[in-house]
From TrEMBL:
Gene Ontology terms, MF aspect: DNA binding; uroporphyrinogen-III synthase activity
Ranges of residues in domain OmpR/PhoB-type: 281-374
Protein name in UniProt: Uroporphyrinogen-III synthase
Pfam families assigned: HEM4, Trans_reg_C
InterPro entries hit by this protein: 4pyrrol_syn_uPrphyn_synt_sf (IPR036108), 4pyrrol_synth_uPrphyn_synth (IPR003754), OmpR/PhoB-type_DNA-bd (IPR001867), Sig_transdc_resp-reg_C-effctor (IPR016032), UROS/Hem4 (IPR039793), WH-like_DNA-bd_sf (IPR036388)
Keywords: DNA-binding
DNA-binding region(s) from the entry: 281-374
SUPFAM superfamilies: C-terminal effector domain of the bipartite response regulators, HemD-like
Source organism of this protein record: Mycolicibacterium madagascariense
Length: 379
């Protein structure tokens, strides 16, 4: 049997918001057929220039903590590398080595061991909640706890409940924000990406960090389109996150999210490949054919049919209620451009029928409108 001329993500539009490894993720998705738009949601503060991290590092060396919580491998390695640049790496590891060390997961554990800092305990689930439970059960009242965090701004913290609950249990918490970030500059590609989310011009948005999620939401608010962005993400623009920590800001706002079992970039690409067609494609048995409507194309019996924007808008509207009559007025509202002449609908339907290859797929219902000629005869 010959291989199909289409890839699993053919016809789907995916936004990539990553600041790191964006090209790698974009390539993985493009190879699977997706149309990818990439714009970094955040810019990182260079570690050697991070005066806040420098001050906190010196303070911990002067007064070593009782407990250290490492949350990310890249964050811990970056912190130690920055300390090395300041001539403080040996002093920092010596100070941390005096403490009980808890790791949130295997990546953080690997970074700790590479630095000669063996962990006391780490959960199998990579769950911050389990780390919190472990510390509270052991008693932390009066203890000084340094928590290495990854990604923060003055207005947003990636683990607010975690730090707050440690403090509520009586601990003196010292948050160590590694890789602080700013939102991408105004007026550029990132603004355009956020606007396209609001206009439902993507089928999915990929997120590889909670700061990227926060940046999208903050920029949407700045642009005055927060409600539209959230409405899109709650309906037909699917949020695909690398893991539960990344998804948390969206979950709090009632946005459905999905994530792979393993928090890895390749796993996220595979997850999008597997899940997006299930979530977004509409498949209908119509006029003796199998019709599948995707973001930017239609497949008829497995053959890709490229459609102009107006024809694509018509087929989406018809497929939303397969078999039912959709009036010319309703179809006119679905067309791009906001015209008022229903002749534009007739022209778009003619082009749609030509592109599909079988004029019987779209039926005319005299004086009422158009419908997909579904095989079960729904009217």
């Amino acid at each position: 049997m010959a291989d199909p001329e289409w890839a699993p993500l053919t016809g789907f539009r995916v936004a990539v918001t990553s600041a790191r490894r964006a090209e790698e993720l974009s390539t993985l998705l493009t190879r699977r057929g997706a149309t990818v738009t990439s714009a970094a949601a955040i810019t990182m503060v260079p570690l050697p220039d991070d005066d806040e991290l420098h001050r906190h590092t010196e303070a911990l060396i002067a007064t070593p903590p009782d407990v250290v919580v490492a949350t990310t491998g890249i964050g811990l390695r970056g912190w130690i590398a920055a300390a090395d640049g300041w001539g403080l790496a040996a002093d920092l590891t010596a100070a941390l080595g005096k403490a009980r060390i808890v790791s949130r997961g295997p990546k953080a554990t690997g970074a700790l061991r590479a630095a000669g800092l063996p962990e006391e305990w780490s959960p199998e689930s990579e769950s911050s909640r389990e780390v919190l439970q472990y510390l509270r059960e052991g008693g932390i009242a009066g203890l000084r706890i340094a928590v290495q965090l990854h990604g923060a701004t003055a207005d947003w913290d990636p683990f607010p409940e975690f730090v707050d609950e440690l403090r509520a249990a009586g601990a003196d918490v010292v948050p160590i924000h590694v890789y602080r970030w700013h939102s991408a500059p105004r007026g550029g590609a990132f603004d355009a990406l956020v606007g396209a989310i609001a206009e439902h011009r993507f089928d999915a948005v990929s997120f590889t960090s909670a700061p990227a999620v926060a940046s999208v939401l903050m920029r949407a608010a700045e642009l005055g389109i927060e409600d539209q962005v959230l409405a899109a993400l709650r309906t037909d623009v699917h949020a695909m996150c690398v893991g539960p920590v990344t998804a948390r800001p969206l979950v709090r706002l009632g946005v459905p999210t999905s994530a792979p079992e393993r928090m890895r970039l390749g796993a996220l690409a595979r997850h999008i490949t597997d899940e997006l067609p299930l979530l977004q494609a509409r498949t209908v048995a119509v006029a003796g054919h199998v019709l599948e409507v995707r973001g930017t194309c239609v497949m008829v019996d497995g053959e890709v049919k490229e459609l102009p924007p107006a024809a694509m808008a018509i087929i989406r509207a018809l497929a939303h209620r397969p078999g039912y009559v959709v009036s010319r007025g309703e179809l006119l509202k679905a067309l791009p451009g906001g015209g008022t002449d229903t002749h534009a609908v007739e022209t778009a339907v003619l082009r749609l029928r030509t592109a599909l290859g079988d004029k019987n797929i779209v039926s005319t219902v005299v004086k009422r409108g158009y419908r997909l000629a579904v095989d079960d005869g729904v009217a």
